[in-house]
Each structure stands twice: as C-alpha cells, then as structure tokens.
UniProtKB/TrEMBL annotation, chains A, B:
Residues 7-46 are annotated as: Disordered. Coiled coil: none annotated. Residues 100-461 form the Aminotransferase class I/classII large domain. This is 1-aminocyclopropane-1-carboxylate synthase-like protein 1 isoform X1. The lineage of its organism: Eukaryota, Metazoa, Chordata, Craniata, Vertebrata. InterPro entries: Aminotransferase_I/II_large, Ethylene_sulfur-biosynth, PyrdxlP-dep_Trfase, PyrdxlP-dep_Trfase_major, PyrdxlP-dep_Trfase_small. It holds the Pfam family Aminotran_1_2. GO terms for biological process: amino acid metabolic process. It comes from Phascolarctos cinereus (Koala).
Length: 500, 500
C-alpha cells in the first residue's frame, strides 16, 4: 500500500548530497562532530510521518469516554516539565534555586510596558453591551480595529475588511475551530516538522484531526540552501505519502516566522507554498503569531495578507494574536482573517465556546488602535530588548560550542545537542532533557516538535539577562558531565513530551 | 426494535387521567379553552424523543467538512430572530420603533450595580502571572475564591475544595467539555424537555453528543401535582426508550432552577433524580446557573452541593457561572465543581481552548470574595427589581388572559398561547413567533426548547418596566388580531429556531 512512496522517500533521504550540516549559527558546522555527519548517511531520516496522538496513551478511566481518557492523558503527559516548574519556579529572592524556564515561549521582557499601558485610564471603560452576550465573531468595533491593525502591519495592498475578521480566546481555539470545520474526524492537515507541538493537541482534542509531517532535517542537500529548509518538493512527498495511506489531507499549516526554527519565509517561498496548496485544493492556515517579533532590523517579514494577490483567497486563512507580539499570552486573544464567509461563519458558530470577555475586547481594541504607543514606545523597546537577549544567549552558546540556527525573529533558538547523546534515540534525548530539568533548567526537546533527528532542543531567550545567565550556567554544568561523541549504550528512559 | 417501548410510552400518554391542564399561574386553567384539553386525548404527546441536530440541516459548503457545514447551519438557523434584533434594536431615544427583546435570557436590571462594582479601584490590578499562560484549570487564587463562594451560597455541609474547581470561559464551554470527555461521538445525555435549547448545540458542535428527551407536558395526571412536572418515571421511560434504540446514554442533565419552566426542585426531588442516575450509572450534570436568581423570598433553593451526602459523588458535576446571577453574560465565566479528578483533569485538558483572560480571573475573584457587597447591596436590590418586573408582567398576562406557569426564580415566564394557534403544529407556532417579530417583539417559541406541545413561549421579563410595557402592548396587538380557538387551516411556514 505504501511501497511507491517509501521508495521515493528513501531515494531522497539517502541521496549522496545529503550528508552534511551547514550554516548552523555563526559557528556553522564547526560544532558538529564527524560521527553525527556520517550517521545521517547510514540511517536515513524519514521525510514523511503521520501523527497518531492516541497511540501514545493507553490509560483508560472508568468514568471517561474513550476520547475523554485520551484527552486527559494529553494533560498528564504534557505537564511533566511544567508541573515540576510550577512547583519550584525560580525567583531571584524567594527561590534562587528554583527552576529556570527556557521552555515556555513567552516574552518576559515587556511586562512593565504592557502593565503600564493596560493600566491607563482609557482601558477602564464599561458599557452594558460589554456585559451582555456578544456577537460570537467579536464586537464589531473590535473587528474594525483588528482589520485596520492588520491592514497597517501586514501592509495590505487594499484595506482589510472587518467582516472577514473573527476574534476568539486565543490562537489555540482558532486551530481547534478550523480543524473541526475544515476536516471530518480522522482527516489531516499537512505541516512541516519541527513545528510548535501544541498544534497537535489543538487540532486533535476536539477535532480528532491528525497532522501529516513533512519532516525537515539538518542535512543540506543539493536542493536546499540551509538546514531544515522547507521546500515544495518535501511538501509534495509528504502529501503523496499521506494519500498512499488513504489519509485525506484537507489543508496545509504554515507558521511564519516559524516556531521553533525562527525561519522567516520570503515572498517567493510563500508564493510557492500557496501555489502548491492551490494545485492540491488544500486550505492554507497561516499562523503569523510572531509577525511583530522580528527583532533584527535587517530582516523583512512578508505577511500573506500583504501579498498583491493570493493564489486561492477562499482557501487562505490567517491567524494572529496578542500572546506573542504583545507578550500577553494570559489575555487569550486570537484573530482569524479569511475572505471565505462559510469558514468565518462556521468558526463563529463555535465562537460561543471560545468567547472573550466584553471588557477585554474593549481593551484589545484600545491597544490595537494606539498606533503611537505601539510604534514609538512598544515595538522599538521590545525589539531592542529581544536583540540584547538574543545577542547574549548566542554569545554564550558560541562559547559553549553549541551549534544553533541563527534567527532574526521569535523568542527561541533551535540548538543542536546531538553530540551529547549516548545514542541517537529519543529516549536519550528525553534523558538529557530530564537531566537539565533535574539540574533546574527547563528546555523543550525536539521530540516535542516532532523533529525527526534526536538531539535538538528549543531554548527560549526572551527573559531578563540574570535569568539567562543562570540558566546557561546550569546547562553548562549538565553538559560538562556529558560524554561527548562517545556513543555508548545508556539506560533508556520512557519518552515523554515537554512543550508549550 | 422499538415496539416494547412504544407501547409503554403510548400507554402512559393516553391514560385516562392525562387530559387536563391545571395550576397554570394564578389564573390556573381558566385561560385554557376546552378544545385544547380535548385534543390531548385525541393526539397523545410522545413522552420520549431523540435529538438529531444534523437532520435539520442539508446545505453543504464546498469549502467545509461535513460537520463544518452542519456547524455553520447552526449559526444560520439560530440567528434569524437575533439578526433581525441586532439590526433593529429598540432604543428609547434613538430607535423607539425597534425590536423589544423578550427572547434573550439576560438580566438587564442591574447594569448600574455591576458597572459600578467592576469600576472600583480594586478591580484594576495587573501582575505578570495574569499576563502569562495560566493553569488551564484557572488561577489557584480564583479557584480558592470559587470554592469558598460555592461553600457559602450552596450551604455546603463541609467546605468545598479548590482542587475540585475548574474555571473556563462560560457554562457553554463546560457543557461542550463534559459532553466530550464523558461521551464518545453519537452517545447521549438524558434531559427533560422543555429545556434551555442552546445545550443542544453546546454538546453537539464539537462533541457530537445528542440529547435524549424526557418530554414533559402540561397535562396533570394522577402521578403529577403540576404541569410539566419532572418525575423519575418519565426519566425511566425515556432512558428505556433510548436503550431500545441502541442509544448509549451516559449522563443526565438537570437544570435547577429550571430554564424555561422556572421550577425549583425540592431536596426530595433532587434525591430521587440523583438516585435514579446512580441506579443506571449515569453521570449527572447539574446546571445551577440561576441559583442566586431566586427572587421570591418564600422559595427555598437546594443546591446539590448543599446536600448532606450525594448518592454518587464521583459522577456528580455541578455547573455555575456569573452570566445569570450577576447579569454579566458578556464576561464569559463558568465554573465546574466535581470531586472526580479524572473528569476535572480531562476538562482542564480542553481548558487551553476555553481560557479566560488573567485580569478577568482577578476581577472575578474580587467580585466573588466581596460578600458584603453581594449580600447587602447586590442580591437584595437585584431580587427586589426582579420581583417588581415579575409582578408587573404577570399582572399584564392576567389582564390579557394568557395562562402561564407561576415561577419564583429566573428571568422568564413560560406562557401558554396554544389558543392562538390555527392548528396545533410547530409551523403554526413559528408563524405566531414570526408575527410577534414582525410586530417588533422577539420571544422564544417552545420548539426552541424542544417542547412537545406547540403553542408555548418563553417571555423574558428581567428588563426595565417601560420596555416591558411596550413589549406587552405589542404582544397584545398581535394577539388581538389572532383567531382564538378557531382551528382553521393556516398557510404553513418553514420551521426555524429562536433561542438564546
């Protein structure tokens, strides 16, 4: 059933040009030992995968439905690192030996700016309509502001329309709603891996939608110009693979800037991905939740909403929210922009389950309309702080001789700790992750992003320098005890997830 | 497959004692014409039904999944009355000919009290944890307050525990989450009808869970002491009926005080319902969202959380929220109390899709802890206003000779307009509903609550007297044109829903 695809995939994975890793941060491939390079020749990485979230869980509750038991296990499994963290959070004064969190992708650099803005008097306004049931697409005055905000920051060629906007309590809810209204149970979205792993549960928990992975890897072949490069060829292969297994793929998920890689897609790349989707009648969900977190002034971000024309506008749906770009993930605010009114109305039908407090809708409208504060106070200061934190952490990584992907956007760095694994397995990756946790520093391991190569980690750097310094020190202490290169057998650990 | 049940159901429905309607408000059966009494003998009302939300919809979108098309249709269908209302809302000054809303169950009498309280300085507090990802069960300090609040107002025999509390963005989300974690797709909850019709979509949209109806009706038989009385016998028959059709019923939904009937269950009744559920290993979801809206001082409300012991505590799950009792449905705040940690954790796993803004969590904690304001300012004033509005509307109904169920709780009255239907059909009921709407007064018709007898309507009275006066005047004008009793054929209208 899968033979044709397997041959094609294997052919690509073992091509002679696929054996080196290049351009890993400023220290490029220097940090990569030859052993790991050889290994990629011997053990080709699969270029396609199919997620099966339920397969990981088997513990049934006598009180829950079958799906309820699986849903509960998602929480149990995902929470291990965070349970430990929340029981023992680092605090400079109260708990200096507590856990440093390099795992959660939050911007902790700008609470002062946001608290100050959200405490201004214009935010404290209440009218009866805010206390009553809203339109489940969001209050019209808020959708007006969102449309104007996105028109401006996405550089839309013509003003975006408020009737194409739906606001709900966070981007997770948008993934859940879109999965449910675009796919029937068991159908799938295509996504390149590594990717922000929480999407797995957002589309699966309610929607029972799976993800088909186009696996990217660190090897640079003749067709790629950098590690983990997303190409249409890889998407084509994964789609073909899914079809050969009878999986109905209904859409493509693009994350731009990408999480965890930090890649920013060029206009040409975006055009190619969107045209690929159009050829196969795939919806495209474009997650631009880091679009204002491009901190390097040399980088150019291209929003899908800023393109002169879209190949398939009725199947193009753009997600944005305030969690990352305004550092307020606790506010639960996400926006969908789609010209497709069937999609907008179907998502709005689920909106009664994803509603936002009316006064918060008012505050978000006030925030988004305050172009002066955003441009002159917030973004410039936020980007400067992100740049400083990024510069600090990359210098430290270079000192530690840890390879990484150089990024210009987002809150994280994708680091290569493969040389510290005893064997190239996810059990070993988990074991290393656990040693970091035991040494009071929480990271996210590559498996949590469905990375196909064991040994990659995501390190979140958007935090104050003293905390970064302490976290890096603890990482160093763990790694100094690790047997580099020596790939001897180590005791295996049960694999678990750690991502947020 | 269904023959045994059908005989039993029919036997009950046609019993000699089942032909009269009594105790309908202060004017009792006076408003009932003899023709409609006779009819119940001739056309027995089914005592059991099975909801099939998808059957009502057939319009497929080329862009949506099968379920997505159905989900979208829910919005299209439910919105007719509300679309008209929102395009033409009554305003004393700006739009005096606009639509008066007697349809949405909101308390519009206390915006002044709530706005004033929510604007106090203690509400405007921000700390970094409120801006960050929360625990998806809700912040611990909020769950502490909820546990203390429920312990006090539900008169819990021992203090309720914060670890048994989950908070999400509204009670709709709790129905969705509970349906999903307690039932697999196609399974069902048992509920007595008429019931708050939105529950249909809350359990179906994501959960694909159906409702089995134990139909109550206005006839008072030997076993009943009042119209629409819920008895264990009726629940038993409906459960048997569902089983005979191969439907797997996983839980019972109780609404107390009941919406739309306004019934308040006694401790003895509650005990009977809970023991029935235990006998059949059914979960019980108890919706107490109107528990503090018991405005008649002669009434006693018994919370399930205030019972000395529960027959099956691991399968008893209580829902409450601020939408009704504090008149802030726009705040989206609902709480679940369950001793079952599997259920609490499974619901919390879905909590990432139902999150509440951190600052709103803080405001809700401040509100719930302010026992002085709640007891000495809010509740006494709120109840006085509800009593006055209720007294006004019931006097008007009596003057109009419209029978109704007398209630002591909630925001609505269940009124009997059967004598104004040309024929006893839901098409006729819809037609009357539409004539009200055309005459600028929005009501909810019985079909929206899955009432089995055509001709009942829910009238929401929790509004200012001038609006009530104008709405009642418009109702009178419509009814004066109606041919009472004369059951001649009228042109049929396509049936649609109108509920909120």
């Amino acid at each position: 059933m899968f033979s044709i695809f397997k041959q094609e995939a294997r052919g690509l994975a073992t091509s002679p040009a696929s054996s080196s890793t290049q351009d890993l941060g400023t220290n490029g491939g220097e940090g990569l030992d030859s052993n790991s390079s050889e290994k990629t020749d011997k053990e080709p990485v699969n270029v396609y995968g199919l997620g099966d979230p339920a397969a990981k869980f088997s513990q049934m509750s006598p009180y829950l439905s079958s799906r309820g038991s699986i849903i509960k296990c998602f929480r149990d499994a995902a929470e291990e690192g965070y349970k430990a963290y929340h029981l023992d959070e680092y605090d400079e004064d109260k708990n200096p030996k507590g856990i440093i969190n390099f795992g959660t992708s939050e911007n902790k650099l700008c609470f002062d700016l946001l608290s100050s803005r959200l405490n201004q008097r214009d935010m404290h306004h209440i009218e009866p309509p805010m206390l009553q049931y809203p339109n489940w697409k969001g209050h019209m005055w808020l959708r007006d502001e969102v449309a104007q905000f996105l028109s401006y920051y996405c550089k839309a060629p013509v003003p975006l329309k408020p009737e194409n906007v739906v606001v709900v309590n966070g981007c997770a809810s948008l993934f859940s709603a879109l999965a449910t209204v675009l796919c029937d149970p068991g159908e799938a979205f295509l996504i390149s891996s590594p990717y922000y792993g929480a999407i797995t549960q957002h589309v699966y928990l309610y929607g029972n939608v799976r993800l088909v992975y186009a696996h990217l890897d660190s090897r640079v072949t003749g067709m790629d110009s950098r590690p983990f490069q997303l190409t249409v060829k890889k998407l084509e292969i994964a789609l073909l693979g899914a079809k050969s297994e009878g999986i109905n793929v209904k859409g493509l998920v693009l994350i731009n800037p990408q999480n965890p890689l930090g890649d920013i897609y060029s206009q040409e790349q975006l055009q190619e991905y969107l045209e690929f989707a159009k050829r196969h009648e795939l919806h495209v969900i474009v997650d631009e939740v880091y679009m204002l977190s491009v901190f390097d002034e040399s980088a150019m971000f291209q929003s899908v909403l800023g393109m002169d024309s879209l190949p398939d506008p009725q199947r193009t749906h753009v997600i944005w929210g305030t969690s990352k770009d305004f550092g307020i993930s606790g506010f639960r605010f996400g926006t969908l922009y789609t010209e497709n009114q069937d999609v907008a109305n179907a998502v709005a039908s689920l909106g009664c389950l994803h509603g936002i407090c009316g006064t918060v809708q008012y505050q978000m409208a006030q925030l988004l309309r305050d172009r002066d504060w955003i441009n002159q106070v917030y973004l410039s200061e936020n980007h400067a702080r992100l740049r400083a934190a990024h510069a600090y952490i990359t210098e430290e990584l270079e000192t530690l001789n840890i390879p990484f992907l150089r990024t210009k956007a987002g809150f994280f760095i994708w680091i290569d700790l493969r040389k510290y694994l005893c064997t190239d397995t996810f059990e070993e990756e988990f074991s290393l992750w656990h040693r970091f946790l035991d040494h009071k520093v929480l990271l996210s391991c590559g498996k949590a992003f469905e990375c196909k190569e064991p040994g990659w980690f995501r390190l979140v750097f958007s935090d104050k320098i003293p905390r970064l310094r302490l976290g890096i020190q603890r990482i160093r202490e763990v790694l100094e005890k690790e047997p580099q290169v020596a790939k001897t057998a180590c005791p295996a650990s049960p694999w678990r997830r750690a991502v947020s």
